[in-house]
Amino acid sequence: MSKSFKSSLILSFLLILSTLSFAQMVSPPSWSIQLNEKELKVGDEVKIVFKAQIPRDWYIYSNDFDPDLGPMLTELEIDEKKSKGFTLVNKLKAINPKKKYDEIWEGDVTYFEVNGAFEQIIKITGEEIIIIGALSYQMCTDVTGQCVPFDEDFTIRSKATASSIASNSESEEAVSIVSDSLTSEDENHVDTTSTAGNEVKEDKVEERSFIDLAADEDQESLIGFMILAFLAGLAALLTPCVFPMIPMTVTFFTGRSKSRAAGIKNAFLYGLSIIAIYTIAGTAVAAIQGPEFANWLSTHWVPNIFFFLVFIFFAFAFLGMFELTLPSSLVNKVDAKADKGGLSGIFFMAFTLVLVSFSCTGPIVGSILISSAGGALLKPILGMFAFSLAFAIPFTLFAIFPEWLNSLPKSGGWLNSVKVVLGFLELALAFKFLSVADQVYHWGLLDRDIYLAIWIVIFALLGFYLLGKIRLPHDSPMDHIGVPRLMLAISTFVFVVYLIPGLWGAPLKGLSGYLPPMATHDFNITETKGLTVSEAGTLDEVPKYAELLHLPHGIQGYFDYEQALAAARRADKPLFIDFTGHGCVNCREMEARVWSDPQVLKRLNEDFVVVALYIDERFELPESEWYTSEYDGKEKKTIGKQNADFQITRFNNNAQPYYVILDHNEELLVRPKAYDTNIQNFVNFLDEAKAEYGRR
Fold first, then answer.
1. Out of 10, 106, 258, 303, which could bridge 297 as a Cys pair, Cβ 3.0 to 4.6 Å?
2. What radius of gyration do the chain's Cα atoms show?
3. DSSP letter string over 53-120?
4. Residues in domain Cytochrome C biogenesis protein transmembrane (predicted)?
5. Candidate from 65-69, 88-92, 301-305, 494-498 with smallest mean pLDDT
6. Cβ(172)–Cβ(197) below 8 Å
7. Helices (H), 255-377
8. Short-list 651, 646, 576, CA closest to 611
9. pLDDT, tens only, 295-321
10. Contact 531, 542 (CB under 8 A)
11. 686 near 645, Cβ under 8 Å?
């Protein structure tokens, strides 16, 4: 075989690989859509069962979270003109979806991996049943950062009897399912066997075990929560109710231990008792709330308003408005049992510490339990364990090494200052709960700019307090401040300065999980929505659909391909196409991390005409603009359907985000780019396209 022939083979192979890697068509899940009953009669309520086999490393969003959050919910649409013989009962129900907090959308989302299931209850109203509809949904992956919207069309035909008796032969032929959503041979179809649905039993919602719940926990979220709880335990040690208890504890053990070994053993038992008391409290909260109750706690306005008021109450207590104390009779009884000695005495000594310190640790412990109430089963247990661990370690060590007491600072006014600082933090965090209720119910009380204004005022007051400019009840007069306090004041004012640009639309990425979404911001100088000709700046005409759609970071552009192409020709610039979607989480991440960079933003504004083509926009166009796709034979009526069809037929790709740059002849300038948060890679992508455009 000659070298030239080998070279030709290698070159051909590489070209084929290049073509295959460029044509990244993502196949949809494999769906089974069927009725769960084989014998039907008029008046019965039965279920349409939708089951999906989802490709590896992909997931589809469910339909039981806030539709305004961002991702595209799974929805069932029934063609009422062509369907007959039934009525819908309730709404499409997701069966056991997973749940997580999504930092990009700043809220809880539900989703399915590997397998997904939905049910729709219908009531049979006629003997001939025809169900024609479509299931629309979004499939995403975190591996490549892609999201793809799909529609699964289906037709179910069946017969029902007026009596309860139906022959087996009739029932076996009663249900047939025809999926006409996909046409190519290599795409997935719904099961078309004549008995589909005859053997399907009603899905039962099984109780999930403790291990299953633990496996579903978000590892990073739990670890982060435990770290915060541990730090809260350390902070509790510096409160005026707890700090003076350290020498008292050491005195208790040093006076009763017969030997060094016995003292060490008793000290460890003491620390374990503290951990056990707090952890049992967390376990009780977990057992009472349960996973279903947790979902109600995290979304309903009643618990969120209650938590908001509880945090405010705790904050006022820390700030010195009043004292939190347990009944003296209870404390005295426990303390009396501690005096008896032995193992029970050690335990009740720990219990005494917990009770006596309640006025300072109560708000912190309550905050931990409330913060975990909307989470999973393990969260309050692990939170209380981490808190008590930090709380118990110093007491245990000082009981073992009493000589360390000589190095401790004397208790005094500085302890009350720690308590006040915690009060300011409680006050700031309280508004997170009010914000959740406000967003879910669209009250409009706590928009992003109002929320930021509140935080700016709270932390500014904290900074002035640390500098001694504000005095609260129980504070001692200060002639001077120490260096640590000055450093903390400086840090607080730096944080305030960081927050201020947020009032004018700065994204404040580091606080995205605590702030209301950008869409609630009333005054944003970086965003331009609903442009007019006079406001369009470099645009020479009003963009179509500008009242519905927008580009981030004040980028001026279009939302219709033909209009944008004409504008690019007039401006003598390349056309930058952004295939995006309202529910595309990785599109938002690209905009927040990459497009916001000054290098990228400058190039998009100055060197290109930008068009954003939303593939999930449901605005229905005039009938004169409808067309039937050559790809799947379906009629495209909406902006999103037409944009998605354009991406598939023209670029052989159906995932978002997807970035394409064309010249005026609609030819590619560079290879299209998908999800990639490396800013330099994106800058190179833009620069290469501009350079190639200049050579043509």
1. 303
2. 32
3. EPPTT-EEE-SSS-TTSSSPPPEEEE-TTT-BSEEEEEEEEE-S-EEEEETTTTEEEEEEESEEEEEE
4. 226-434
5. 301-305
6. no
7. 260-299, 301-318, 328-338, 342-356, 358-373
8. 576
9. 454 445 776 787 688 778 877 877 877
10. yes
11. no
Give the whole-angstrom CA distance, residue 289 versus residue 296: 10
Place of tokens 């999926």: 179
Residues contacting 58, CB < 8 A, separation 6+: 29, 113, 139, 140, 141
Name the pairing type of β-strands 635-636 and 627-628.
Answer: antiparallel
Tally of CA atoms within 13 A in the half-sphere of 341 that contains its CB: 8
Structural tokens at position 300 = 């309903």
> In the 8-state DSSP scheme, what is residue 231?
H
CA nearest 335: which of 248, 413, 406, 422? 248
How far apart are the C-alpha atoms of 71 and 100, rounded to whole Å? 13
SS (H, E, C) 124-161: ECCCEEEEEEEEEEEEECCCCCCEEEEEEEEEEEEECE
Specify the pairing of strand 609-614 against strand 627-628: unpaired
Helix extents (H) in 442-546: 448-466, 483-499
Beta-carbon contacts of residue 152 (< 8 Å; ≥ 6 apart): 28, 31, 33, 134, 135, 136, 137, 179, 181, 190
What is the Cβ-side half-sphere exposure of residue 496, based on CA atoms within 13 angstroms?
A: 17
Q: Which residue has the tokens 């997931």?
A: 59
Mark out the alpha helices in 608-678 (DSSP H runs): 639-651
For tokens 């967003």, the residue is 439
pLDDT at 146 over 60: yes
Contact of 613 with 579, CB cutoff 8 Å? yes
Per-residue pLDDT of 4-54, as tens digits, reads 444 444 444 444 444 333 445 677 888 989 888 888 888 889 999 999 999
End-to-end CA distance of the chain: 40
Residue spans of alpha helices (H) in 500-581 = 561-571
Token pair 């970071």 in the structure block, residue = 553
Amino acid identity of residue 69, one-letter, is L
Please tell me whether residue 251 adopts helix, strand or coil conformation: helix
Token pair 């982060």 is found at 224
Token readout for 288 is 């009472």
Retrieve residue 584's tokens: 């595309």
Amino acid at 205: V
pTM higher than 0.85 for the full model? no
**SS3 label, residue 462:** helix
Helix (H, G, I), strand (E, B) or coil at 611: strand
Number of H helices, E strands in the chain: 19, 17
Q: How many CB atoms lie within 10 A of CB 384?
A: 28
Q: Look up tokens 């932390």; give the residue.
A: 459
